[in-house]
Design a protein that fits this description.
By secondary structure, the chain is α+β, with helices and mostly antiparallel strands. It has helices at residues 41-51, 115-119, 121-140, 167-176, 210-213, 271-278, 288-300, 312-323; strands at 23-29, 32-38, 63-69, 82-86, 89-95, 98-103, 108-113, 142-145, 147-152, 155-160, 180-183, 187-190, 196-198, 203-206, 222-224, 231-235, 243-244, 247-258, 265-268, 303-309. It folds into 2 domains: 8-140, no CATH class; 144-323, P-loop containing nucleotide triphosphate hydrolases (Rossmann fold), CATH 3.40.50.300.
């Protein structure tokens, strides 16, 4: 036999199909099953940090992620990302070493990242893993609402407002007083269902001034520079007594309006006014009319208020009276 004939031919694989992905986990992200395969224990650990233990709420849609970590130890973890999309295809790009490609219709994403990005679990989770999860599900099943969410007596409240309105501090204050915590900044409304939102209750993010309002945060916070901007981040398991859930039925939508003085009070507003306040924050993702219809359905089935308050304790007591 010709010795050359016994030598296996080199595989022509310019696209990286043959890279082995021996590690696998299945978790429920925002209630939807996600199968993730990778060649990195860091990716596996970060995924489980975000979503292990959460229940499966839906069985009509699932996701599959393939996360490939290169051998380029010289590549740096980036400072941020850029999203671009047309129809059902989306790219998430930091640089030539850090990027992902998503099929929004099929719930599939392929990630190519260096070891430095995989080792920074917070960056990978916040800017790649969870970001892509949300983008895919906002396209197919969910509608984004810029709001915190807490629940009491089975009744969920959406706390809405612009950045700096106090959503994180007020939702955390409610959670510390026995409410169930669903999320501090981003609630996702389940389309074509009774008003229900899903969220990620394992993280809370604060501005640097939060310690002045909530002194119990002293020593519990970490500086977060993943985006290149100063912020504060706290894993909500720093307070194990806080009850958490990934979903809640919505009872009322509350727009925060902090006042310099006066008692806390809820001022009813119309569903039409509430829609005008929330519509500008809807993600411009196809099909946009589905998002608008979902928002209108939520507001027609919920109480809607502007919430004027100054003191956190007074605010929490007033909200308790609303759901009692």
């Amino acid at each position: 036999m010709d010795p050359a004939a016994s030598v296996a031919a080199a595989i022509f694989d310019p696209f990286g199909y043959s890279i082995p992905l021996p590690l696998e986990t299945v978790v429920n992200v925002l209630g939807f099953p996600l199968r993730l395969v990778t060649n990195s224990t860091d990716v596996l650990t970060a995924t489980q940090e975000s979503w292990s233990g959460f229940p499966q709420l839906f069985n009509d849609y699932s996701l599959e992620f393939r996360v490939l970590i290169s051998g380029n130890e010289r590549a740096q973890r980036p400072e941020g990302i850029v999203w671009r999309a047309q129809k059902h295809l989306m790219t998430v790009v930091s640089d030539q070493e850090n990027y992902a490609v998503c099929d929004l219709d099929r719930g599939f994403a392929s990630f190519w990242l260096p070891p430095a990005t995989a080792r920074d679990h917070d960056f990978f989770r916040r800017y790649y893993l969870n970001n892509v999860v949300e983008l895919i599900l906002w396209h197919s099943r969910l509608t984004l609402i810029h709001a915190a969410c807490v629940a009491r007596n089975g009744r969920g409240l959406l706390l809405c407002g612009e950045s700096g309105a106090g959503k994180s501090c007020l939702s955390f204050a409610c959670a510390r007083r026995g409410w169930t915590f669903i999320g501090d900044d981003c609630a996702s409304l389940v389309r074509r269902s009774e008003p229900m939102v899903v969220g990620g209750p394992r993280d809370v993010h604060f501005r640097p001034t939060a310690i002045e309002i909530l002194p119990e945060l002293q020593g519990k916070l970490e500086v977060l520079n993943a985006s290149g901007k100063l912020g504060l981040h706290m894993r909500s398991n720093a307070f194990p007594e806080i009850r958490r859930s990934v979903h809640a039925s919505v009872f009322a939508v509350v727009f925060l309006n902090r006042q310099p003085h006066g008692p806390a009070r809820l001022v009813p507003i119309s569903a039409a006014e509430a829609f005008l306040r929330l519509e500008p924050d809807l993600p411009l993702m196809e099909p946009i009319e589905d998002h608008r219809a979902s928002l209108r359905h939520l507001l027609s089935a919920s109480l809607t208020f502007e919430f004027r308050y100054q003191d956190l304790d007074d605010a929490v007591k007033t909200l308790e009276s609303l759901v009692s």
